[in-house]
């Protein structure tokens, strides 16, 4: 966001954040930006896991079953988008180059669409893509799909993110061509930054979440089977 708003270049922002992490780790982890990001992703995974468990219970499926239907998409998106909009509103004001002002409805709309695409690509798309990947192991196909899908969707979601930020940072009458030039100029660096952020969150995080949940639920299945 600092790069898109013009507050700082991408490399300078990364170096400043890394220096703060090394020199003042306590301040870094207790900062508002880190807290908002942690709350966002932990709540998103908690919602998805809860829906999987409820679905398995209601349909008498194995507890380790992972769903990918519409209910999971809409409810997980609702949880993610609500917190993401709060995060983005805070970040837009923290890193903007203008005094804090009301965020336009169009910006909220673009951010919401951006987040819906990311959730769909992180929770619903991987199970559909995995069987078609050229790997022999089912677990490897699932892991690769979990990395590929969230990263690939950033090709589309990054322009939505940048356009929404530009609508906030430049509220004056700027034609769509002027905004398009700004978006395309920032696309490369912002795409890289979003992929770097998304891969740990929904790539590594998705694989770890999937394996940990599967291990816990299979242990629960084994315990239930022994009792019977």
Structure notes:
The structure is a single chain. The longest helix has 52 residues, at 176-227. It is built from 9 helices and no strands. The protein has 228 residues and is mostly helical. 81% of the residues lie in helices and 0% in strands.
* Largest sheet, strands/sense/barrel: none
Poorly predicted runs are none
Instruction: Write down the oligomeric state.
Output: single chain
Distance between the termini: 55 Å
Mean pLDDT: 84
Instruction: State the order of secondary-structure elements, H for helix, E for strand.
Output: HHHHHHHHH
Which outline best applies? Answer: globular
Percent in helix: over 70%
Estimate the strand proportion. under 5%
Annotation, overall tally of beta strands: 0
Q: Count of DSSP helices?
A: 9
Task: List descriptors.
228 residues; 9 helices
Task: Give a quick summary of the entry.
The protein is an all-alpha fold.
Please write out the topology.
Blueprint: H1 2-5, H2 10-23, H3 25-29, H4 32-58, H5 70-95, H6 105-129, H7 138-152, H8 154-169, H9 176-227
